[in-house]
Amino acid sequence: MSRLSTIPVVLIAAFALHAPLTAAEYQVDAAQSVFAVLTHKAGIASGFAHDHLIVAGKPAVHLEFDPARPEGTRFTFVVAVETLDVDAPASRTAWKGRLHELGVHSGELPPVPDSDRNKVRSAMLGESQLAGASFPEIRAEVAGLKRGEGAGQGTWNLSLRLTIRGKSTER
User: Fold this and answer.
1) Rounded distance between C-alpha atoms, residue 123 and residue 88, angstroms
2) For residue 17, is pLDDT > 70?
3) Which phi-psi region, left, alpha or beta, contains residue 170 (left: φ > 0; alpha: ψ -120 to 50)?
4) Burial annotation 44-70 (CB, 10 A radius, 16+ → b, else e)
5) Beta carbons within 8 Å of 47's beta carbon, 6+ residues apart
6) How far from 114 is each of 45, 75, 107, CA to CA, in Å?
7) pTM of the prediction?
């Protein structure tokens, strides 16, 4: 977990919601959604590196939201680490415009050679990073949602619990 915290990442949860299934349950439209991490190159060797776009394949997502009681929001996200797709050409092309719109990436996302993609994925799933064989899933869930104080009615503070390598941290 400590190694992951040194890498600047942005979690993109750009998802589209269908109409409510019940009064407070929503279904994520997988065809119009992406759950991804975008890393930004940095440091002395950054000129030889590239930003990585890692897309979670087939995550299990559950969202319950009641506009009358937003603090009761429940959200869980679980993905098998084996389904993480590193720098896939189709994903880099499809999502680069949205990343620009969100202000999380200003450069280009050029294609990454398959040999580099395979090396990065192998290292990412290896024991020194995600340890995918020992810890097969990543989980995120809303731990709490509270109305912000003094900053206006539209401000909310969200606590997110993230579990990677079997260790949870809350932010």
Assistant:
1) 16
2) no
3) beta
4) eeeeeebbbbbbbeebebebbbeeeee
5) none
6) 21, 34, 21
7) 0.76
